[in-house]
């Protein structure tokens, strides 16, 4: 095969070819197994999965949810716990008995609400391999209905108050949980992305409040139809409810009774993930992308420092939010979003972060997805997944989106990964320099700039980098969410995949391919780093159960056949 050559250097595997089939592939010497699928029980009282109904509505909050996405593994004493997001619903699959998956009643809506959110689950490796421990006291489902506490500058603000919560500090549920992160104090961060899609109006003539347009909140929603059966999602009835979503939420995986916290100080936008790193002085730095065309890359820096054993109260609430400005000369600036720079109050900056960032002239980006920080070198990376409609604003009030330094292509089907080096090796610094780690492209069909950067070659082709994690050795694992037609501009790219990048040499090679129609998203390691957990989201092939069965988003576990380390 074209990839027969054993990879050199730091890659302990032979790169695999593209695939276009309905299963997962990994290199020789590695194997994959299923860990858990949508609908698998977390508790023994949960209903068994039913292929004709997609599972009962009753008990949908007792099973592994739909559309696995970002995840992290935590050690809780001797136990290992994975927290994992359930981003959205595949309605036609989750409600297969309804035409086009359209909810028919309040029970259908409640089922969808319960299949999304977050799972916390204890995992262990036995003689038969890795499995989820049914009925572990650490198992937990967090859904669109779980009580949350709101903290930070917007907590209690008028715009967050509703009839059900006149305090503005108690909300229900976390929504469209996309990417993830972890804090140094052992908590999970889950990031609310396309929350706008859950809202609609039963009154077609209602006036939309200021601030809806930039976030894409409108009368119709994206087909979840919550608003027809649950007045909380009917903007003609509960116009402030959308202001209570679009945040980063902190969950303590060691305490199933704990109340998740929405941290408004990290801003409100279509959060992809939250990559946390400590500055040299101990301040907490959180990097975050806003995944929409023409939106921005952000950073939060805490006011206080983290010190093990000391209270972490306020570390994600009290601090400064910045937005990135990339200069054409390869330098860059983090611009503080303050009442002085934006003429907005601290609460307004937290709620309408996109508008605040536009006021300071931040750099419009090609859909910032995951940020990853190298653990052995002071540098950050962000996937800019693609931009298929440059110049067409996705939402009212957005900025013009010309091609620019880190987003150089007018028509960007392939995406790129931008890298920055903080000044003084300090992630809290206001200045940085930047370059492009990779411009994805296709040298099989283009011989111009669309062929991609020098580290793209005929046998590592991919498009739309999305999720991204560093391992402990400083290798960068890249997961894709792109076109898998394998034709035209995408010839030679096959199904979505996971690749490994060496930040030093720039080399990138393919490690895993997913089933047809799926996106590969979410990655974490066992405590001993001999297992890697990978998310397979929204397959349209009947993965993993085969023909005649509903496709089910799944977490798979990868091990080396010789039991060696994976990162
Ligand atoms: Fe949920 Fe931007 O990916
Ligand atoms: Ca993503
Ligand atoms: Ca994506
Ligand atoms: Ca996705």
Task: Give an account of the 3D structure.
The protein is mainly beta. It has a single domain (30-161, 173-201, 208-234, 243-305, 316-560), classed as Neuraminidase. Helices cover 6% and strands 30% of the residues. The chain has a 9-stranded antiparallel beta sheet, with no helix packed on it. A 6-stranded mixed beta sheet has the order 8-7-12-11-10-9, with no helix packed on it. The radius of gyration is 22 Å and the shape is globular. The two termini are 26 Å apart. 55% of the residues are buried. The model is unreliable at 1-7 (pLDDT under 50). One calcium ion is lined by residues 87, 481, 519, 521, 537. The site of one calcium ion has 5 residues, from strand 26.
Which terms summarize this structure?
disordered N terminus; globular; Neuraminidase; 6 helices; binds MU-OXO-diiron; 567 residues; binds calcium ion; mainly beta; six-stranded mixed sheet
Structural class: mainly beta
**CATH homologous superfamily assignment:** TolB, C-terminal domain
Largest sheet: 9 strands, antiparallel
Q: Which of globular, elongated, flat, extended, rod-shaped describes the shape?
A: globular
Main β-sheet, spatial strand arrangement: 13-14-15-16-17-21-20-19-18
What ligands are attached or bound here?
MU-OXO-diiron, calcium ion
Helix content: under 10%
CATH topology: Neuraminidase
Number of separate helices? 6
**How many independent structural domains?**
1
Number of strand segments: 28
Q: State the separation between the terminal residues, measured CA to CA.
A: 26 Å
CATH class descriptor: Mainly Beta
Protein name: Phosphatase
InterPro entries: PhoX, TAT_signal
Organism: Roseovarius aestuarii
């Amino acid at each position: 095969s074209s990839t027969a050559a054993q990879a050199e250097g730091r890659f302990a595997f032979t790169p695999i070819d593209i695939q276009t089939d309905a299963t997962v592939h990994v290199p020789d010497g590695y194997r994959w197994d299923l860990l858990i699928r949508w609908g698998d029980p977390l508790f023994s009282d949960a209903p068994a999965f039913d292929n004709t109904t997609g599972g009962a509505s009753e008990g949908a909050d007792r099973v592994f949810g739909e559309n696995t996405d970002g995840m992290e593994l935590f050690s809780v004493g001797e136990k290992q716990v994975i927290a994992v997001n359930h981003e959205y619903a595949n309605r036609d699959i989750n409600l297969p008995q309804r035409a086009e998956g359209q909810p028919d009643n309040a029970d259908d809506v409640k089922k969808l609400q319960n299949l999304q959110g977050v799972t916390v689950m204890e995992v262990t490796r036995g003689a038969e391999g890795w499995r989820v421990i049914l009925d572990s006291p650490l198992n937990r489902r967090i859904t669109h209905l779980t009580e949350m506490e709101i903290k930070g500058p917007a907590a209690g603000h008028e715009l967050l108050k509703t009839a059900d919560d006149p305090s503005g500090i108690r909300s229900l549920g976390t929504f469209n949980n996309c990417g993830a992160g972890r804090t140094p104090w052992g908590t999970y961060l889950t990031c609310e992305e396309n929350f706008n899609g859950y809202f609609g109006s039963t009154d077609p003539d209602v006036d939309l409040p200021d601030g809806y347009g930039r976030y894409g909140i409108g009368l119709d929603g994206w087909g979840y139809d919550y608003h027809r059966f649950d007045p909380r999602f009917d903007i003609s009835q509960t116009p402030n409810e959308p202001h209570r979503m679009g945040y980063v939420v902190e969950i303590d995986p060691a305490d199933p009774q704990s109340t998740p916290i929405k941290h408004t100080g990290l801003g409100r936008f279509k959060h992809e993930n939250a990559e946390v790193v400590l500055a040299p002085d101990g301040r907490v730095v959180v990097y975050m992308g806003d995944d929409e065309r023409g939106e921005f890359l952000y950073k939060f820096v805490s006011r206080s420092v983290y010190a093990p054993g000391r209270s972490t109260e306020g570390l994600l609430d009290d601090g400064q939010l910045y937005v990135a400005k990339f200069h054409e000369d390869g330098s860059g600036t983090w611009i503080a979003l303050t009442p002085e720079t934006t003429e907005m109050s601290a609460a307004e900056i937290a709620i309408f972060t996109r508008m605040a960032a536009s006021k300071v002239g931040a750099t419009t980006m090609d859909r910032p997805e995951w940020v990853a920080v190298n653990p052995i070198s002071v540098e950050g990376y962000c996937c800019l997944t693609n931009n298929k409609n440059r110049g067409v604003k996705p939402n009212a009030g957005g900025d013009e989106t010309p091609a620019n330094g880190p987003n150089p292509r007018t028509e960007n089907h392939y995406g790129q990964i931008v890298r920055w080096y903080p000044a003084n090796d300090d992630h809290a610094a206001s200045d940085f320099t930047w370059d492009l780690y990779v411009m994805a492209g296709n040298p099989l069909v283009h011989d111009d700039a669309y062929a991609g950067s020098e580290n793209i070659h005929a046998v590592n082709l991919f498009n739309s980098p999305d999720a991204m994690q560093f391992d402990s050795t400083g290798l960068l694992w890249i997961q894709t969410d792109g076109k898998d037609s394998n034709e035209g501009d995408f010839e030679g790219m096959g199904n979505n995949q996971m690749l490994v990048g060496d930040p030093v040499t720039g080399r990138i090679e393919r490690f895993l391919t997913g089933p047809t129609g799926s996106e590969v998203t979410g990655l974490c390691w066992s405590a001993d780093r001999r297992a890697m957990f990978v998310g397979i989201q929204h397959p349209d092939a009947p993965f993993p159960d085969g023909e005649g069965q509903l496709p089910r988003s799944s977490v798979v576990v990868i091990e080396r056949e010789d039991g060696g380390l994976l990162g």
